[in-house]
Structure formats: structure tokens, C-alpha cells
Design goal:
The chain has about 400 residues and is an alpha+beta fold. It has three domains: about 10-115, Butyryl-Coa Dehydrogenase, subunit A, domain 1; about 120-235, Butyryl-CoA Dehydrogenase, subunit A, domain 2 (Beta Barrel); about 240-385, Butyryl-CoA Dehydrogenase, subunit A, domain 3. It has helices spanning about 10-20, 25-35, 40-50, 65-80, 90-100, 105-115, 175-180, 195-200, 240-275, 285-315, 320-345, 355-365, 375-385, and strands at about 120-125, 140-145, 145-155, 165-170, 190-195, 205, 215-225, 230, 275, 280. It is globular. The chain binds flavin-adenine dinucleotide (FAD). Flavin-adenine dinucleotide (FAD) binds near residues 123 and 371.
Length: about 400
């Protein structure tokens, strides 16, 4: 497959990531998937090579690269057949500390996150009663002297069992008060929770079994004290801080989808060329060829949008519209490529050793998380097209 229509950017980084990923071939990911195990060795290697610290500024021990470079790293991991979901959150949730944390917090945490001495992988936003509707969260942090006391429950907190720190969104003003004042996006605050301290004083983690290997969990807070110095920014402004990180998250997830789509396209081209039915390669049939060609064209279009969204982000002209469209189009492109790849493989698409069914399951997630396709469309309808708010 040719390099991107948008140009061959970050060639050295892509080659280095591809080389690292080659040490973790398909049987590695297949075994983890069947045993529901965490890719500890892969994440250690990625951290040790500095890739997870790509976005941390040099003054805090990272490499200070643009978002487009981080996108190239995650894309290559997915293109190789691996899955960056085990560690990608560190790249974008760190940005909340960088943009809204105070200098003491940045100096205390960012250098250790950069080296991997501290893992910031857990992002506690979703709750059983509210995934899309974030401003309705109930987990409450009550101020008590020089600490907050947290009670409530998070769900889908991925990697909580493999993280030293959690970025937690909790309510600090009762919902009745914020609704009365008509400011429902206020009254939420962000905390950096030390997972070890919290586990010793009332926080429990329960794994959730899912259709993919994602190390996702439920987290219960029962009178868990969090030092007030771990509040990020100003109390009550947390929703705004979380929102500021979502554009980066959407662009990076979009890049992972592009990597998945490339993996599916490469796999199905190879299989369509070698599999002979009725005495000729199946790829000679238009019924097989055309869905592959369509998947390719749609991947290329989505790739342009992901790169444009990253370019805007890096030039300081962050556009939520572009970040949302990048995630939407890339997730659709990877899902369509997954469907075409499974169909091209016939029955063998269902055989574990071909990895198609695993990647098929994994890429399906991006229609739902971290933001569902419908919610992106409602955003575009309202903010880009001026249609009435529908929710
Ligand atoms: C494997 C996995 C990992 C995750 N990791 C994390 C994590 O690390 N941290 C975290 O905080 N969260 C995480 N999530 C949660 C994820 O962000 C939510 O699942 C997602 O935001 C959707 O929320 P929900 O599941 O509550 O769906 P709901 O909000 O209940 O929505 C259900 C369906 O209804 C649709 N819908 C809802 N309202 C509307 C509307 N007004 N118009 C049209 N359609 C609508 C949605 O699009 C969706 O399809 C994860 C989820 C999964 C499955």
C-alpha cells in the first residue's frame, strides 16, 4: 500500500514503532486476547522507548512532539495488528494536568509519567447511569478540611488495575443546585487520585468481562479521601478541563482506526490474491475486489480528515468539528474495512489464528467509545449546521 495521500510524515517514528511492534507479533496479541491478559511487556517496551511520553514537554522529561506524531505512533501500533488501548489514555489524559494543573503538580507527576515510574492510564468519567450524558454524573467529592471525601461508582474505567494514578471527574456541587442555576456543566471537578492510597482507604476495583481484551473495570468509592492538593485547577471547572482533552482523544482514536483499516486492507488484499476458488484467485472477482477498493478509498478520505484535525490542533487552532469528524469517519472506515476483510476471508475469518475476528471485535468498539457515533452526529447537527439541539 502506498504512503498517505497527505504525505509521508514522521517516517522515522513510524519505522521505529513498526520495528518495536515486530517484537510483538500476532501470536502475542492472540494469547493475551484468549487469556484476557494485559500486554505488560509491550507497554513497558513502548514506555521505555519514550513513545508514550511523546506529548510531554521536554522540560518535564518528555519529547515534546506534536499531536500528529502521537497519532502516527498509535496508527502504526494498530497497523501492525496490535492494540494501543492498553496504554493510549496516558497520552491524552496527561494533557489535563499539563494545561490545567499547577506547577507543583506538573513537576511532581509529569517527569515520572514520562519515564514510566508512574502510570497514568485510568480515566474515571463514565458511570452506570451516565455515559453520553456526562454532566449527570453522581460520584461526589465532599470537601473536608485539606481533603475531599469521594463516594460513588465509576464504570468502564479501563486499565484501573494497571495504573498508579486515575484522573477522576466527580461532582463537587449537588446536581439540584447546578440545574437550578441553569449551569449544569459547572459543579464538576477533576482530581488526580493515587490508586494505591485510594485502594487502602475504600476504593475497590472490579473487572468487567467484555467481548474484547480491554482491562476495563468498575470502580467503587466508599469514603475515599483525596488530598485537596490533588484537585486539578479550580473546583467546579472540571467539565471544561475534561472537554479540553477530548479533541486530542478523538484525533488519536481516529488514528488508531486508520491503523486498523490499513491492517484489514493489507490482510484482505493478500488473502484475495492467494485464495483460489473455482481455479482462480477470489480477488479476480469484482464482488470481492470492489468492497476492498471502497474500503481503501474510505480509509484514505478519513486519513486526510485525521491529519487535518491534528494539523489544526498542533497549530493552536483546535477545532472540535474537525476532531469529531476525524473520529467519526475513521471509525466508520475501520468498521467497513473490518466487515469487508471478514467477508473476504470466508469461513477462515472466524478462525482465531487469522486474527481477523479479534481485530473485527476490537475495532467495533470505536462506534461506541470514547464517544458514540450518534453523539458526534448530534454535535455536528447542532454546532456545525445550526440545527436545534436534540438532547
Ligand atoms: C470497552 C470500553 C472501554 C471504555 N473505557 C472508558 C474509560 O476508560 N473511561 C470512561 O470514563 N469511560 C469509558 N468507556 C465508556 C464509554 O465512554 C461509554 O460507553 C460511551 O460514552 C457511551 O456511553 P453509554 O455506554 O452509557 O451509552 P448511553 O449513553 O447509554 O447510550 C446508549 C446508546 O444510545 C445512544 N444515544 C444516547 N443518547 C442519544 C441521543 N440523544 N441521540 C441519539 N442517540 C443517543 C448512544 O449513541 C448509544 O448508542 C468505555 C466503554 C467501553 C465499552
Amino acid at each position: 500500500m502506498q504512503e498517505s495521500l497527505a504525505g509521508d510524515d514522521f517516517k522515522d517514528i513510524r519505522e521505529a514503532v513498526a520495528k518495536l511492534c515486530a517484537e510483538f507479533p500476532a501470536p502475542y496479541w492472540r494469547r493475551l486476547d484468549s487469556e484476557n491478559d494485559y500486554p505488560t511487556e509491550f507497554v513497558s517496551k513502548l514506555t521505555g522507548s519514550g513513545f508514550l511520553a511523546a506529548l510531554i514537554p521536554e522540560m518535564y522529561g518528555g519529547s515534546g512532539l506534536p499531536l500528529a506524531a502521537a497519532a502516527a505512533i498509535l496508527e502504526e501500533i494498530h497497523r501492525s495488528g496490535g492494540n494501543a488501548a492498553a496504554c493510549h489514555a496516558q497520552m491524552y489524559i496527561m494533557g489535563v494536568i499539563l494545561r490545567h494543573g499547577n506547577e507543583t503538580q506538573k513537576r511532581e507527576y509529569l517527569p515520572d509519567i514520562a519515564t514510566g515510574a508512574l502510570r497514568l492510564q485510568a480515566f474515571g468519567v463514565s458511570e452506570p447511569e451516565c455515559g453520553s450524558d456526562t454532566t449527570s454524573i453522581r460520584t461526589f467529592a465532599r470537601r473536608d478540611g485539606d481533603r475531599y471525601v469521594v463516594n460513588g461508582q465509576k464504570i468502564w474505567t479501563s486499565r484501573a488495575g494497571h495504573s498508579d494514578l486515575m484522573l477522576l471527574l466527580a461532582r463537587t456541587t449537588p446536581e439540584t443546585e447546578t440545574r437550578k442555576s441553569g449551569k449544569k456543566t459547572r459543579g464538576l471537578s477533576v482530581f488526580l487520585v493515587d490508586m494505591k492510597d485510594a485502594a487502602e482507604s475504600g476504593m475497590t476495583i472490579r473487572p468487567i468481562e467484555t467481548m474484547i481484551n480491554h482491562a476495563t473495570t468498575e470502580v467503587f468509592f466508599n469514603d475515599v479521601p483525596v488530598p485537596a492538593r490533588n484537585l486539578i485547577g479550580t473546583e467546579g471547572d472540571g467539565f471544561r478541563y475534561i472537554l479540553s482533552g477530548l479533541n486530542a482523544e478523538r484525533i488519536l482514536i481516529g488514528a488508531e482506526c486508520i491503523g486498523d483499516a490499513k491492517w484489514f486492507i493489507e490482510r484482505m488484499c493478500a488473502y484475495a490474491g492467494e485464495r483460489k476458488v473455482f481455479g482462480r484467485p477470489i480477488g479476480q472477482n469484482q464482488g470481492i475486489q470492489l468492497p476492498i477498493a471502497r474500503a481503501y478509498a474510505e480509509m484514505r478520505a478519513a486519513e486526510l480528515m485525521v491529519r487535518e484535525a491534528a494539523r489544526r490542533y498542533d497549530s493552536g487552532r483546535t477545532s472540535a468539528e474537525h476532531a469529531n469528524m476525524a473520529k467519526l469517519l475513521a471509525a466508520d472506515a475501520s468498521w467497513k474495512a473490518a466487515e469487508a476483510c471478514l467477508q473476504t476471508h470466508g469461513g477462515f475469518g472466524f478462525a482465531r489464528e487469522f486474527d481477523v475476528e479479534r481485530k473485527f471485535r476490537e475495532t467495533r468498539l470505536y462506534q461506541i467509545a470514547p464517544v458514540s457515533t450518534n453523539l458526534i452526529l448530534t454535535y455536528l447537527a447542532e454546532h456545525s449546521l445550526g440545527l436545534p439541539r436534540s438532547y
